[in-house]
Amino acid sequence: MRIEHVALWARDLEAMRDFYVRYFGGTAGDKYVNPKHGYESYFVTFDTGARLEIMYMPSVPENTNDIDCQALGWIHIAFVVGSMEIVDTLTERLRAHGYRVMGEPRTTGDGYYESVVLDPEGNRIEITV
What we know:
There is one protein chain. By secondary structure, the chain is of the alpha+beta class. It has two domains: 5-56, Roll (2,3-Dihydroxybiphenyl 1,2-Dioxygenase, domain 1); 76-128, Roll (2,3-Dihydroxybiphenyl 1,2-Dioxygenase, domain 1), CATH 3.10.180. 19% of the residues lie in helices and 36% in strands. It is built from two helices and nine strands, in the order βαβββββαβββ. The radius of gyration is 15 Å and the shape is globular.
């Protein structure tokens, strides 16, 4: 068994698609549009076969979670990048491009080397070896 995809509601489909393609090496499929419901989406596929479905529909309300405080439910998506140096480099690249770094690169108590950054809409991304 494996996870096939995870889905994410977004305000700006194109900005979110471009972020995951540019910084995490995803490949975006064609945009799907259902005009009857005002629903639009992209699937972004990563080299492992896992996919991220980025969705928009004007009737979906804003998220009430606070970026600085965690709450119950899904909290982050993690990308394995291959080395500590790539974690450091990608974290600095994202910071230089204006993305917020929530957790500096470090070795965690359970042995992961990781950083935590926010995507364009404030979703947490763990970058790890």
